[in-house]
Structure formats: C-alpha cells, structure tokens
Amino acid sequence: MLISELAELTGVSARALRHYEDRGLLVPARNSSGYRNYSASDVTRVAQIRVMISAGLGTSIIQRYLDCARGGDHGISLEMCPELRAELDSLARRLNARQVELRETQQRLSELASAG
C-alpha cells in the first residue's frame, strides 16, 4: 500500500510516517518508481509506535525497544527487559517531578490571584 493508504488506515499523517521512517522506526519497501510500499504488518507497527509515543516515549527510545512491543487481543503491550524497565522508571520519575512543579506553580498562581 502507498503512504496515503497507510495514513488513512492508521489515522497518522503521511508527514509523521515519513518521520518514523527517518528515525528508523518504519522501513518500507520501494517500488520500481521509488514510491514507498507498505505492508499490512506496517499497520501494526504504526499502532505500536503510536502507543509508545502516547506513553511519553521519544522516538530514540522507541527505536531501541520497538521489538519489545507486542500486539494482542487486549491491545499493545511491551515485553519488559531490565533496560526498558529502567527507561520507563526514569520517565515516570521525571513526570512525577514535573507534576510537583506544576502543582506548586498552580498554588502560587492561586495565591497571586486571590491577593488581588
């Protein structure tokens, strides 16, 4: 299938698909005219990429661990290896720290608003 067809099937823009290719996440075949030619397995691969992005993982991390992604009846899951677990734990710590910062900022904003 062509990039426009994959974009339509997955709900991901052609621009994003080209970005995934640039990052080594998708490796489409090329036809004799040089057009990208995607397979049905690329639909699953894009779903795996999207799930990992929505969980806060960057493309460099996804590239390292995309082969750990599994699709099944209950959606996408990851096989946990120690390195991936460490990456996820690190991301969770950063998110928790950011939430604390945001709560503190929100509190200061409320105090400032109520003082006026």
Helix content: 55-70%
Basic shape: elongated
Compute the gyration radius: what is it?
Answer: 19 Å
Named CATH architecture of the largest domain: Orthogonal Bundle
E-strand count: 4
User: What is the domain tally?
Assistant: 2
- Please, what is the oligomeric state? single chain
Question: In terms of structural class, how would the helical and strand content be classed?
Answer: mainly alpha
Average of the residue pLDDT scores: 90
The main β sheet shows up as: 2 strands, antiparallel
Number of helices: 5
Q: How widely separated are the two ends?
A: 60 Å
Numbering strands along the chain, what is their spatial order in the largest sheet?
Answer: 1-2
Strand composition percent: 5-15%
Low-confidence residue ranges: none
Domain HTH merR-type: 1-68
Keywords: DNA-binding, Repressor, Transcription, Transcription regulation
Protein name: MerR family transcriptional regulator
